[in-house]
Amino acid sequence: MNDDAMNLRARHKQATREAISHAALRLAIDQGPHGLALVRVQDIASAAGVSPRTYNNYFSSREEAICSFQADQSRRAGQALAARPADEPLDRAIIAAMLELYTDPEPDRAGLRMIMSTPELEGEALKAFTMAEGPLAEAIAARAGMDPERDLFPAVTAAAVAGAIRVAGRRWLASGSAASFADVVRDALACVVPPAPAPRSRS
């Protein structure tokens, strides 16, 4: 299989994954506050235009399907930071990378509220955000000239970033203000993202 065919297949799989996820979330929202328990696999598959078998090939639960967008974002966190200009200060690079990754486009309020107000979904979303920590820590270590296995700074900063984004989501939903999600995320990240310390001596 040539590269073009492989890329086309990957895009098709991602589009199918996103269609299933979107259908699952919209059905849960439509059912009301306890909508997750009322959504069946058959309903999700029908709304997404796929068979139940195809659904099961992509996801093992409704929670995983609904939170797949957050999981996909988190898997790209390290790449997003690595793509920033090499001469950009670390704190600015992290904030810019996370803003682009998590706020473009701005989350759907109803969808985010459903995820954060349903314990099963909130737990799945927490797992999704945790996926960002390892790749992000490696990217932070690379930019800061550190060893991710020895230095605490990359892992601690990555965990703090993931936590700040979760807190920003809750604050954005609860505030009722006209502030954009990007503004809230930027303020939250500014609380936890310090400039990189000098690399430790390897002696």
UniProtKB/TrEMBL annotation:
It comes from the Bacteria. Signal peptide: none annotated. Residues 40-59 bind DNA. This is TetR/AcrR family transcriptional regulator. InterPro entries: Homeodomain-like_sf (IPR009057), HTH-type_TetR-like_transc_reg (IPR050109), HTH_TetR (IPR001647), MftR_C (IPR041347). PROSITE patterns: HTH_TETR_2 (PS50977). The keyword Acyltransferase does not apply. Residues 14-77 form the HTH tetR-type domain. Keywords: DNA-binding, Transcription, Transcription regulation.
